[in-house]
Amino acid sequence: MTTGLPEPAGFPECPACAYVVTGTARLCSDCAGRTLQPVSGSHCSSCSQAVAPGRPCGNRLCALPVSKRGFSRVDAVAVYPGVLRDKIHRLKYDGAHGWAMIFGRPLVGWMESHPEQMEGVDHVVGNPTAAGRQPLQHIEAIMNAASRTAAWTATSSNARRPSRLIEAARTGPAARRGTIARCGRARLP
Fold it and tell me: How do 152-154 and 187-188 pair as beta strands?
């Protein structure tokens, strides 16, 4: 991973890692991927929740057509229980702001390492935090941190408009073809 350099500390030891300030999205994403539990092989293609093989998703939104549910799909980076849940709670409920930067990197790393999933996507929308959420608006903090790590810019958010990452420069296959992906399709991380 880092020939001749210190090994990354491994998630959830990120605050003690030699790369906590300078780590790239790919380095942090690969490191977190060694610890975090990936999404089940048998999962809903709309919301990423685990489902029994051959069974429909229990989320009633997933049965709706895309035009009615308001999103194309949710791509989960990892499953929620365990150590990931604990660190999300540190950010969300304890206001440990440094975790926003740490969570932003695996988000961008996932986007970089899944170009086929990101093809044609020029808006990534985070499920907005309730206005006035204390101690902080954690989704917006993660999206802002992610925008400092990638070729995406974050919009400012308020209660009526969710944080979102907007492709600031042509990247991936769209750049190689010399075309700009059209707006209109969004995938939620």
Answer: unpaired
Rounded to the nearest angstrom, the gap between the alpha carbon of residue 162 and the centroid of all alpha carbons in its chain is 14
- Contact status, residue 182 vs residue 120, Cβ threshold 8 Å: yes
Whole-number Cα distances in Å, 30 to 1, 75, 188: 9, 17, 20
CB 133 within 8 A of CB 50: no
pTM for this predicted structure: 0.69
3-state helix, strand, coil in the chain (%, to 5): 35, 10, 55
In this structure, what DSSP letter does residue 55 have?
P
**C-alpha–C-alpha distance, residues 2 and 171, integer Å:** 25
pLDDT band for 159, please (50, 70, 90 cuts).
very low
Neighbours of 13 (CB within 10 A): 12
Cα–Cα dist 137/147, whole Å: 16
Q: Which long-range contacts (CB under 8 A, 24 or more apart) does 132-135 make?
A: 132/159, 134/95, 135/93, 135/94, 135/95
Residues forming beta bridges with residue 124, ordered by sequence position: 165
Q: Is the pLDDT of residue 88 over 50?
A: yes
Q: How many residues are given for the chain?
A: 189
